[in-house]
Amino acid sequence: MATNGKTARPTSGKIRLAQNGIVIRIFVLLVRTYYLCWAKTLLFRLFFLQFPAPRHKRTMKTDISNPMKKLLLLCPLALLTVGCFDRDYDLSDLDTDHIAIGDDASCFDLPLANIKVALDDIHDDKGSLRQMLAEADVWLPSALPGDTDYVDLHRVRTEDAYLDTLLDALIDEMTSDEEKLAQVADLAWSDYRIKFLGTLNLPAGVTEAQFLQTFKAQFRAGTLSSAIRTKTEESARNYLTALDVETLEYELGELDLGDALDMLVDNLDPEGTPDPVNTLSIEGEVVSSLPLTLNLSPSFDPADIRISTFLIEADATTQLPSTRIYAEDLRRLSRASNVTVRVPVDLQRYYPGTVIDQQTPVTIRLSLRKTGALNLELRSTAK
After folding, report:
1. The model scores a pTM over 0.85
2. pLDDT tens readout for residues 225-243
3. Is the Cβ–Cβ distance between 364 and 121 less than 8 Å?
C-alpha cells in the first residue's frame, strides 16, 4: 500500500500506536518484565533443580528432562528477551520534561514545622505563666460576677466598670472568707510589702507574723480598714490590667526542601489570578491545654510571611487561617540559613482555678499545602 508516494510498512500502524503515550509503553514494559521473570524462574527450575517424584498417582504429561524439549522451550524465551531491546519501546526515547503529578483538583501537604511551646517559654518580665496566673487567682474573686467561668482580660484592660465589679467582688469575699483574706495578706507580704508598710503604719523591720496579723485585723474592723481596701484594690488593678506575655520566638534552622522546592513553585498561578488553581499556602493547627483563649499572629523571617491574627480556644485544637504564599516567599525561606517564627500573644480570656499540669501545653503544627498538579522534571540521558 502506498501513502503520499511512500510505502507504508505493515507494522507501522502498530509502532505509531505504541508511541501514542507513556501509558502504553510502560504497560508493554511491565508485561515483558513479567514474562522475563517467569522465564528466569522456569530456566532455573529446568537446569538447576532436581524435581521430586510426583506425590500423586497420575503421571506428569510433560517430560521436562528431554533435552529436545528444553531446546524448544528456550527458543521462544530467547526471542522474547531479544524483543525487549526493541528501540520502539525504549523508554530512554521518551520526552520526560514537565510530567504532571495529579490534576487541578489535587492537593498535596508537606510538613513544615512542629513547634512545642514549653510552659516556661510563656512569660512576662516578672515570671512564668504559672506564676502569673497563680497571682491572678489571688486578685480575682472565686465567684465571678455575672455567673461566668472566665475573666475577660480584654475588658479588664479597656473597661473600668467591668474591672470595678471584679474588685468589688474581691473585697466582699475578703470580708466574708478568712481563706481569701489570708491569701491576699500573704501576697501583700511577699510581693507588695513596701507598698503596704506605710498604710499599716508598720516599720521596715516588721516580722512576717506581725505584718499578717495587723493586715487581717485592720482590714476586718480597724481604723485602717478603708486605707487597706483602697491599697488592695489599687494593687489588684495594676496587676490585672498589665497581665500580658512576651512574644514567643522559635528558630527552625534551615528548611532543606531539596528537589521538592521546584515541584512546589514551578507552576504557581500569579498573584491576582481569578479563581487560582495552582496555589501554595501555609496551613496548620494549634493544640492548647491552657486555661486561656489567646490571639496569635505568627510571622516568618526572613520571608516576612504573616498569618492573620486568629483566636485559639482554651483546652482545644484550633485550625490556622490559610495563608497564601508565592514562589519567591518559599525560595527565600529555603535559601535562609535559619528561619525564625515569631508569635505575638494577646491574652483574651482566663478561666481561673485551673491547674496547668503539662510542661508543653501548646503545640503548633505548620505545613505547606500545594493545590493543583505538581510538575516533575526528569532529565533524559543521552543515547
Report:
1. no
2. 999 999 999 999 999 999 9
3. no
